[in-house]
Amino acid sequence: MLKRILLGLITLVVASTALAYLTGNGFLITALQRTYLQGHNTANINDHTAFDVNLIAAATPAPLPKSPAYNLEPLPEEFRANLDKFKTAAFLVIKNGEILAEHYMNGYDDRSKTNSFSMAKTVTTMLVGIAIEEGYIDSLEQPLTDYLPEFKDDPLAQTATVGQLSLMNSGYEWTEHYYSPFSPTVELLYGPDVSDFLLQGSFSAEPGSFWEYSSASTQLLGIVLKRALEAGGRDITISEYLSEKIWQPMGMNDDALWHTDDKGLEFVYCCLNTNARNYAKLGLLMLANGKWNGQQLVPAAFVQRMITPVGQPYYGLSTWLGLEHNPSHYHFSGHLGQYIINIPEYDMVVVRLGETRDKSIDFRTEELPIYVKHAMDLAGH
After folding, report:
1. Which residues are CB-neighbours of 7 under 8 A, at least 6 positions away?
2. In the chain, what are the helix, strand and coil shares in percent, each to the nearest 5?
3. What is the radius of gyration, based on Cα positions, of the chain?
4. How many helices (H) and strands (E) would you count in the chain?
5. Measuring CA to CA, how many Å separate 364 from each of 21, 59, 104, 371?
């Protein structure tokens, strides 16, 4: 009897697997292996071991200095309990370029590589700004069909620009959903060839007519960047470009990793993996208008465009804005509560990384102000 049951289960698994691939849903098998059978209902911050990755090579490390007041003020008990409740990995506060407070919990430390999720969108747009400065891309206003000719016969795509992919208003048809296994967002993460998947899509709205958050748009922007580099004679990965233009010049303290599809293309809408101090440095780079140690890594005018709202008061170029808050801030954001928050008025950067977040509150208007408040308290403001 047991043998018959086992044989039946094996037959069911084999048949289900075959059906998934025959119906074009082979990504579901990959999702099962990498996520659902690992006890998760969505991607997780430690999943780089389950994916192919490209290396973002570091060079000579330049450690962030510690403030004379480093960790002198303890975290309030209620706030620490909240951090623990949502499985926080790191809470770090930079003030005037120095580490003021740094706390790790739940088994994480200052060298732990964790998934950035959509914070990578902001990094990708920074790289596009560099590529424009170097002449690989003409401008944000350049027609996206110059790099994505697959859409040249789509009348809506014909008027869309490279910059609109970053602004999330290109009109590309997309539904962002992280928890349904049949969501296109899940297929984007677990499919074998993201370029083939997205370039078979279409545009369903007039470019610039409305805003809709879209990981697909950022991934298309990554395809634009890769093709622009190749057309300019640079046969390198996006990870190598990041290493060359930002990672090494900034003296990041460790190599980073970037998830890729089976073809070796980075998931530029997510899945950069590094530690809290390096994430903080990315915030500092934006805070300094793209300059690091006297070297202009990202054009200053481009950084200002990134943090200027276009259409939506809370979003710029792949950057979330909290300009209406006091103090005003802007931030990189990842879907399980990964944040790099910049507070220009007080020369501060706040990093929060973790395994989950409080989904009962709005992250932008309710959750981020909590982190900003406690960072300000630690800084004596």
Report:
1. none
2. 40, 15, 45
3. 21
4. 12, 12
5. 39, 35, 23, 11
Give the whole-angstrom CA distance, residue 183 versus residue 175.
8
Supply the pTM of this predicted model: 0.91
Contact 191, 261 (CB under 8 A): yes
Strand partners, 161: 143
CA pair distance 57, 114, nearest whole angstrom? 16
pLDDT tens per residue across span 142-163: 999 999 999 999 999 999 999 9
Reported residue count of the chain is 381
Look at residues 229, 308, 315 and name the one whose alpha carbon lies nearest to residue 266. Answer: 229
Give φ, ψ of 292 to 5 degrees.
-140, 120
CB 272 within 8 A of CB 281: no
CA 370 to CA 377: how far, in whole Å?
11
3-class secondary-structure state, position 265: coil
Tokens 């049951």 sit at which residue?
Answer: 5
Partnered with residue 54 across adjacent β-strands are: 258
Q: With CA atoms as reference, report the closest residue to 115 among 89, 91, 92.
A: 89
Residue 23 pLDDT > 50? no
